[in-house]
Prior knowledge:
heterodimer; A: about 70 residues; alpha/beta; three-stranded parallel beta sheet; flat; B: about 350 residues; Rossmann fold; 2 domains; seven-stranded mixed beta sheet; five-stranded mixed beta sheet; about 20% strand
Amino acid sequence: MLLCNLVSIAQRVGAPRIVPTRGIPYPTGDPSLSAEGERAWRRQLLERALQALATPVTEPTVFDGDPLE
Amino acid sequence: MRIVHYLNQFFAGVGGEDAAGAGPELREGAVGPGRRLAALLGDEHELIGTAFCGDDYASGHTEFAAALVEQAREAGAELLVAGPAFTSGRYGLACARILAAATEAGLPAVAAMSPDNPGLAEAAGIPVIESGATARQMGPSLERLAAAARKLAAGAELTAEDGRIGPVARTNRMAERSAAERAVALVLRRLGGDRDATEIPLPDFDQVTPAAPLSDPSDALIALLTEGGFVPAGNPDRLESARASKWIRHSLEGRDSVEAGEFESVHGGFSTQWANAEPNRILPLDAARQLEGEGAIGGLHTEYFATTGNGTTVADARRFGLEWAAELHGARIQAAILTAT
């Protein structure tokens, strides 16, 4: 599965399982958060990645919804 | 015709990665490569303004394109020209969005980028002219772009002979020769060794068949992969910062996290300051180890693989993918989490 910010490109090249992230230079980070808040967000992002890996898909599928929202 | 030219923050002279977050702006006259473009466009056309935007801003705020096109129209633009973006992905994507916004607003538009630029597929039938891979090919790339813009301004359609690449919108028109004659002509070209001649170019992306889902991640071996130019500090394997010709692997055994000073990103396509301050922002080892410790992940692969996805050719990227898949299969890894910058 793919964790990335440029979701439209990932869909176009056919990546089957896509989890959107918050910025190009830090796919599994968010420098706007406190260090502790960022670690918690990263963990939730990976939980979403595991959920994507365990979900059947037939075409490029975006698993969105920001984990902190 | 009055023409407005789109550039990213770098070619507009605003700054490098430090200015990639800069918002959209329209300035009077030609800037940077636009000066040469203006000369090549000749006397019957005037480059009245330069629109630009930071690459990160343009990636995250799609509305930048419509805003710039509106400003260009108010300034009297009759045609938009974007790039050349070479193989720069964010810049190519921004050019494609400018093309789409211009077309939406009823303005003819043309961009230039490399056939390997991911922005090409986003241009969706609006003309893109082939540029070289890097700014070293600025001169000839601008010449082709200017010739295409002149032709477009004259109301003519751009074709492969003008260096047009990417998807072409299908339109109805009267052909000079019958379908039978054209088919025979194509067969003769094919017999003559031309493997590319066609009236209907097809998109060349692979179909990717999704892998079956994991029945239970808590029972699975999972690998961490990245195209973020992620290397041990000092880059001992000399991974390239752009146009990577290889990938690297490094052990994660005995580590609970990837620490600043021990790992870094050498990616040349964005500012690496955030990744270098906290490397888990590119390779999320700290969170993955936590989930492994709690049993949510069966186990993490003992090493990570990395390359640099920056101007990397599709052919090389495909080879890396095949090699990674073979390696992971051999190590009985059932799933991979790939971070992309």
